[in-house]
Amino acid sequence: MDDKAGEADEELTDDQKEEKQHAEFVRMADQSLDRFRDTHSEPQQQFIVDAFVETGEIPTGEAFGIEEVEALVVVAAFEQHLERNVLQQHGLTLETYFEHVDDADYPALRKAAAKGEWHVFHGHAQAIAAARKAGTAFTD
Which of 32, 43, 61, 121 has its CA 20 to 30 A from that of 1? Predict the structure, then answer.
């Protein structure tokens, strides 16, 4: 069966392979988030989200009930979602977007990501893209 799956993957275009890989990554992140919601009380969830918003890192370890690999997958999934579903629409990558983000704005942006408020990023990315096009964008 693995041989058939491998052969089927070889027949996919690069875009299809990337999409398949992305879908699997999203599935793993969703699984980690579901486990997090199922195993942590509301106050525990809020504490961990607040720590992520403040520091940019999800607390891991036995005390927090979160494995490091799960945290890495979830953060990477957020980044992939941001780039694929928001920034690309405005001609930006994560790298070009963050060239124009002030460090002081990171907590607010992490909070928006944690809440799934992607409209915040759309508005921000649109303004950055317009400023880049006009030549008035600033960089750090």
Answer: 32
Copy the structure tokens of residue 103.
Answer: 């460090």
Q: Which residues fall within 8 angstroms of residue 83, CB to CB, at 6 or more apart?
A: 93, 94
Q: Give pLDDT tens digits for 93-112.
A: 999 999 999 999 999 999 99
Contact 79, 113 (CB under 8 A): no
Q: Are 120 and 109 in contact (CB under 8 A)?
A: yes
113 CB neighbour count, 10 Å cutoff: 19
- Enter the DSSP assignment of 88: G
